[in-house]
Design goal:
The structure holds 2 protein chains of 2 kinds. Chain A has 7 helices and 16 strands. By secondary structure, chain A is α/β, with parallel strands linked by helices. In chain A, the strands form 3 sheets. In chain A, strands 11-9-8-7-12-13-16 form a 7-stranded mixed sheet, with helices on both faces. In chain A, strands 1-2-5-4-3-6 form a 6-stranded antiparallel barrel. A two-stranded antiparallel ribbon of chain A has the order 14-15. In chain A, a hairpin with a 3-residue loop joins strand 3 and strand 4. Chain B has a single domain, classed as Jelly Rolls. Helix content of chain B is about 30%, strand content about 25%. Chain B is globular and about 50 Å long. The chains are: A alpha/beta, B alpha+beta. Strand 10 of chain A pairs antiparallel with strand 5 of chain B.
């Protein structure tokens, strides 16, 4: 097992472009892999000589391999997105809390994703589809900026065939788009949710998560059965540096996934 | 209600009035008011591609969508039609019928085969003028729909899914 603050070497085994600024990297360990993870956890990804960023894990395999989806928004993420097959990168982790997708077993699992927020949810969905009989329904609602900026677009058909009800809405669409146009919360109205049996996992921009959680609360879904994935400035990953503090929480340790009854009062404080 | 492909069905019957009252938009409305609306209503079905209305046209009808999927759109010179928003099961299609000068602000086209209750707008407006109770019950339902769409439009203006800040700002 690697030390928690030292990166393990991984090689890019495959690179798949998702959108104009987002790629999915399949990574294979060169030496000892990082410990096993749970869906929703993240790693600190290291672009040698440039820096580290926290990135959620979006899948596994083959073997001890990991799948991570990165959006180019700065120097480190641009370097990671540009990493070609065979290139070496570093990984620390896995860190943080996870979706606890098993909690939805016996009821309805509702996944609501906005933009690249689908990446941390992908593995939770795959885990649920792998145990589909344990869930009454698996509903996936996805919001994207435009059809061209939808991540994992080529996987949606497989998710549907696997038993998930998948709906996509976009903010901007041209003639010919046969899906929904609007905000992802509007899809909740069409999903026929049974609030008493629903466990919701939400990831996306914080405003989107707040609005979605509020809509779900208005429909009657208990706050404790709504889980959100929060982001702050995670640096060390081991709850030492304090950069990711949100009130009493250090999100690299106590998050990123927390239940909405814990998150709601913190998200209401403007300066946190 | 008729199958898709028949542009207009029969006026809503007594049995259909119960179905009309069960529509999500009208749920909870007193039966007497639903009966008034039913007299101005008929079932309609449209194939994908059917245009319900065009921007600038007279807003003399509105629809309560039962199934299917409708896009509100607008044309722009030199560009294909832009989709403003989509509506589906349980939604109200058409707001301009309630706002003078009663002209459609956008177009509407069926994206999928769509079934709906179609209501005659002048008849409904006249019924509301004659009975403010009906008008209030209707506005109690129109206002949340309009508010929800305004809210959604504001959220979309925030462009939440854009990269946070300019490239180079983030890690």
């Amino acid at each position: 097992m690697t030390a928690p603050t030292l990166p393990a070497r991984y090689r890019v085994a495959e690179r798949r472009g998702e959108t104009h600024d987002t790629v999915t990297l399949a990574l294979q360990p060169v030496d000892q892999p990082i410990p096993a993870h749970q869906p929703g956890q993240f790693t600190m990804m290291y672009a040698p000589g440039i820096g580290e960023v926290p990135i959620s894990i979006s899948g596994t395999g083959p073997g001890a391999g990991l799948v991570q989806t990165v959006r180019a928004v700065g120097a480190v993420t641009r370097a990671l997105c540009a990493a070609g097959q065979g290139q070496m990168i570093g990984l620390r982790g896995p860190y943080g809390t996870h979706w606890e997708v098993d909690r939805a077993a016996g009821g309805d699992l509702l996944i609501v994703a906005g933009g690249i927020g689908l990446a941390p949810l992908r593995e939770a969905l795959l885990a649920a589809l792998g145990n589909g009989a344990r869930y009454r329904r698996i509903v996936v609602l996805i919001g994207a900026r435009s059809p061209a900026e939808l991540v994992f677009g080529q996987e949606l058909g497989g998710w549907r065939r696997g038993g998930a009800e998948v709906e996509v809405t976009v903010d901007q669409a041209m003639e010919g788009w046969a899906g929904h146009v609007g905000v992802v919360t509007q899809l909740l109205g069409y999903a026929d949710i049974d609030p008493a049996r629903t466990t919701a996992l939400i990831c996306g921009p914080e405003v989107m998560m707040r609005l979605t959680a509020r809509e779900l609360r208005a429909l009657g879904v208990p706050a404790a059965r709504i889980r959100v994935s929060l982001e702050r400035n995670m640096r060390c990953g081991v709850a030492e540096c304090g950069h990711c503090q949100l009130g009493p929480l250090l999100l690299c340790r106590d998050g990123p996934v927390i239940s909405y009854d814990v998150a709601a009062p913190l998200l209401a404080i403007r300066e946190l | 209600m008729t199958a898709p492909g028949t542009p207009h069905g029969e006026p809503v019957s007594v049995a259909g009035a119960a179905e009309l009252g069960g529509h999500a938009f009208l749920r909870g409305m007193p039966d007497a008011y639903v009966a008034v609306l039913a007299r101005a209503c008929r079932g309609t079905a449209a194939r994908a591609g059917h245009r319900f209305f065009e921007e600038g046209g007279t807003a003399d009808r509105f629809w309560l969508i039962v199934s299917g999927h409708v896009a509100l759109d607008v044309s722009a010179p030199g560009r294909s039609r832009l989709i403003v928003e989509t509506l589906g099961k349980g939604d109200l299609l058409g707001l301009s019928w309630l706002v003078p000068p009663y002209e459609w602000q956008f177009g509407a086209i069926a994206v999928q085969d769509t079934m709906a209750f179609e209501l005659n707008a002048p008849a409904v407006r006249a019924a509301c003028e004659g009975d403010p109770g009906l008008g209030y019950e209707l506005l109690r339902r129109v206002m949340p729909a309009a508010s929800s769409r305004l809210h959604a439009a504001r959220i979309r203006m925030l462009d939440l899914y854009a990269a946070a800040g300019q490239a180079g700002d983030g890690p």
